[in-house]
Amino acid sequence: MKSTPLLFLNVIIIATCGLIYELLAATVSSYVLGDSVTQFSFIIGVYLFAMGVGSYLSRFIDKNIAEKFIDIELAVAVIGGFSAPLLFLTFAYVTYFGIILYSMVFIIGTLVGLEIPLLMRILQDKLDFKELVSRVLALDYVGALVASLLFPIFLVPKLGLNRTSLLFGMLNAAVGVWATWLLEPLITKRKAMILRVKGVIVLALLAIALIKADRLTTLAEDALFVDNIIYTKSSPYQRIVVTKGKTGYALFLNGNLQFNSFDEYRYHEALVHPAFAAFQGDVKRVLVLGGGDGLALREIEKYNSVEFIQLVDLDPDMTKVSSAVPALGELNKHSFSDPRVHVTNGDAFVWLDAVQAEPFDIAIIDFPDPNNFALGKLYSTRFYNLLKQKLKPDSSVVIQTTSPLIARNSFWCVMKTLESSGYTVKPYQTTVPSFGIWGFALAKLQPFDKPAKPPTNVELRFLNNETFASLFEFPADTSKPDIELEINRLDNQALVRYYETEWRRFEQ
Q1: Which of 28, 83, 120, 335 shows the smallest number of beta carbons within 10 Å?
Q2: 258, 277, 304 - which closes a domain
Q3: Is 366 a catalytic residue?
């Protein structure tokens, strides 16, 4: 063998690629199915179990170990490299996506599990057993660290999921071709040549796919979205898609509809104006958490008394969408250009904890639904207690709280969590055709009566005295359930469990 140290380098590469493929599968599934905690856990569990299966199966490979190792490396390159594009396409075109997802995770895990034991057997004559095991396992974990750092910091933000998948497939194939020289003493010249040809073919296919990665993404998204796609952007946090159809423009984050221009005014009027109606006096300072589309800002800017608006949204690409898509800029009436608006891109939880600011009269909280722990913390007692530090004793708060019809327990869990944090809460709901029945919480730090009508002298398309009063009425099927709901805390994330259970009924 030409170089034992170079074979140890292969261990790092194998481990890195294997974990990258697992992370890709988990991320793709979260993009297309919603960020399910159970689903992510299943993917990790299936992958680790499959690695164990692969390690066990390696005992049955007795002959031509070096050749088998290279063949497996090339198989991982093909399956792992094409995994992300294939998963996106299968979700778009078939109904049994889950079977394909977990089958692919299992196959990749099994193949990766085969590689390390075979490589250890190839190296067993070069080092004593204790030294061999310690080095291989240590380098295996180094590879896992490399993957876990590269994936969120560089690969997804800069390359996107499809390109990352294909690039690491090419890396696996290159390692396989490289190994035909490193393991030359253990492979016949004829077999080495065959393996090199295979490797070059795999590299070529992956390279072509890498060049056409945007086309592969377009094929999948064209099938996922009924209307024409006019804008896409993969940020470090999410996939942003804007479509245009007969009813107007629509914004999707990770495949989930955020608004349709046809009826978004219903949602945003219901989100913003009850808070103003509940506040006694002129509103001067407003805090907006989330709301990177600028549509809540549009409603807030209708009030001449407002002097300062602080918007905190995690994703800078989200707050730039209305600049990138002129139609959305017109829809929010170029709300980000208002000199009263101050934008901070960062985690709202961290911002509340770290930033000192003069108290606000009103807080509008427009986060995505709590479908994962990262979002669930933004609906927790800890978050609501941090929010208190930015409020006056008579400040008004409004929070979007998912559908009380589809996710009834989730909706009322938010109400209970707010009450346990010291807020007086008036829940309300409205109908938005694109979403159905949608819920909100109007809260204050002191007892108050629910407002009877919307503010006067404000241009409104949806709310009037009659519709405003009906917001606070709950039919039997959306009223508080007769069960003891948990309070959503950081250490239990009860809301995420409720939400996942209730919305899973509507997954494809």
Answers
A1: 120
A2: 258
A3: yes
